[in-house]
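Retro notes, item 3 of 5
We never archived the inputs for the glutamine complex last cycle. Fixing that now. Sequence and ligand:
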Amino acid sequence: MVGALGASTVDVRRPEDLADCDGLIIPGGESTAIAKLMALYGLYDAIRAHHAQGMALFGTCAGAILLASKIEGALPDQVPLGLMDVTIKRNAYGRQIASFETLLPFEGADGGEVRAVFIRAPRFAEWGANVKVLSTHNGEPVALREGRLLAVAFHPELTSDTRVHKYFLENVVGTQVI
Ligand code: GLN
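Structure as it came back at the time:
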């Protein structure tokens, strides 16, 4: 998605991979497994340090869980990065069978709707006064922005619509896109 918008990309597996990154996307998947690998490779401190020096972060689904200050339903050893002033509840829509797709208004999409794929998605339970809601589903926030942090409960990368990533690059990272 990022490459399609003309930005260069690198896979991040170790702290040194972050050296040239203006922005980091933590993808969906399984937040317990991602947390284990982040701890094993020393990525918690590295990500926090790079963010403190200006690196923007975008978390989709499991990635959003890891950005939060507090996780409801975390495994005992599952620690969030604690960067975004939100409480997030894992698997809050139910099991895999409750996964769904829908169209949602998204503030950064020029007033248009984006197709949103929710897969065992989390729900944002609480958010601080400095957190801006960019999209809602049934009145609940599903895309949130706080400074150089963007968290969405769904998977914008599973569609061909690049507008959520474009919003991240242009407005959160602050870079030019095609
Ligand atoms: N349920 C997963 C978790 O708690 C997130 C699912 C996803 O990223 N699609 O980590």
